[in-house]
Protein: Arylsulfatase A-like enzyme
Amino acid sequence: MNKNIYLSLSALSGALGVVSVSAQTSKPNVIIIMTDQQRADLCGREGFPMAVTPFADSLALHNVWFDKAYTVAPASTPARCSMFTGRYPSATHVRTNHNMKDIYYTKDMLEVFKEQGYKTALVGKNHAHVKENDFDYYDEYSHWGRNRRDTKQDKDFASFLNDEARGQYLEAAPFTAEEQNPVQIVNKALSWAKQQKDSAFFMWISMPEPHNPYQVSEPYFSMFSPDKLPATLTSRKDLHKKGKKYEILAELEDQSCPNLQEELPRLRGNYLGMIRLIDDQMKRLVRELQASGRYENTIFVILSDHGDYCGEYGLIRKGAGVAECLTRIPMIWAGGGVQPHTGAMDAHVSIADIFPTLCTAIGADIPLGVQGRSLWPMLTGKPYPRKEFSSIMVQQGFGGEDFTRDETLTFSEEGALTPNKIAHFDELNTWTQSGMLRMVRQGDWKLVLDSYGRGELYNLKADPSEINNLYNNKKQAARQMELLAELMTWELRVQDPLPVPRSRYHFKRNPYNYHF
Structure:
């Protein structure tokens, strides 16, 4: 890479590098703990009244956490590719789960870690562009169990997930909690980490849960019984306020799950139980690393790729729109070098910021084409420009015209619905993903605009479920214009700089990828 293209970060690594007491010359280990489809607000630190994430809450309160962290797009592959490249879907070209092979970038996170001498591992779900051969250790799990089914336990559990619990399971799972994916994944992760004695390591611990199939074992099944759950703030009665795509998704869900509205409380309980199981395993992982003396020299990043309706608007999973329950994600930074911060960090951040932040933390250059920003100064108590983190953008849609239910195409023909099989539906389909949306959040306000010029404007403090659309409300005209300008600024900012001019022109970048 041409080092004259941008300012090198190597001069900063001595001041910002993280070392432990026991290994003064080593680089920090890095562990990313990612869940799949976890809402940000179902936790004690945000006021949820049930003990869903007690360990993560404790870790957050003693380190750094964000309550305005967002995915780049509410779908797994676009979000995960963005985390590894630091680029938005409009730049990676990965705007759907079906465009992984189209990815475009110069250098990703794994390449940087390898250049820095790290051992690398994935234990859990992949669903990004990275491949088995890119890692030193690779043990993949999916929503249907472990990919390498070496044992009878692997085979039996995978059979249950594929056949009996394909989308959801309304009874306690007929397996022990110890046989569930999160426990098995942490077992494998700890085993591999203990073997790393001579070099720093990067490990991606990627839980397939709480993504559907919604199923969980005792005692977690009974922890969140339907009669104890707080009511959702919205229901199917609010669907007409959210637009046609939400209504089409509801129609698809009802065709696959005709009793969905009656089953929703139990499915919500399963979803919360799955998160609590993950939280307990996260605690086991961190505690064992603390006991081995590795916590102080390990940076932990805890996040999800996107959220889940979990009953909002009478829906499950994801699909339509960019509601907060789908786009806002949990994000915690802990461990080596992270300076504790009281309360949530007042900054709008993105999953695209993970890669450049880790580059700074380990003293590596941020590769050309990365669009995210380094959070490391913020995380380590150093000065940073507040304006840089005063808003954030989310993208959604693969383009073209919106598909409607007036088309001759049916759910079954498209592949969105497997007839006569409960919960065999794909919420990420032609109807919900066609067209294009952009969302910007700034403080308590959120604006959404689609390619037809249709807008949404919400005050999230007064209207957290986004059902009172203030777009074109005369009283909010100034606010609307302010947010439209902010959205346009973001759109210009994330226009892909690649390829940069080949001669003569000088390409200028801030060392932390700051714009302001």
Residues 1-25 have pLDDT under 50 and may be disordered. The chain has 17 helices and 14 strands. Residues 26-390 form a domain with the Alkaline Phosphatase, subunit A fold (CATH 3.40.720.10). The chain has one domain: 26-390.
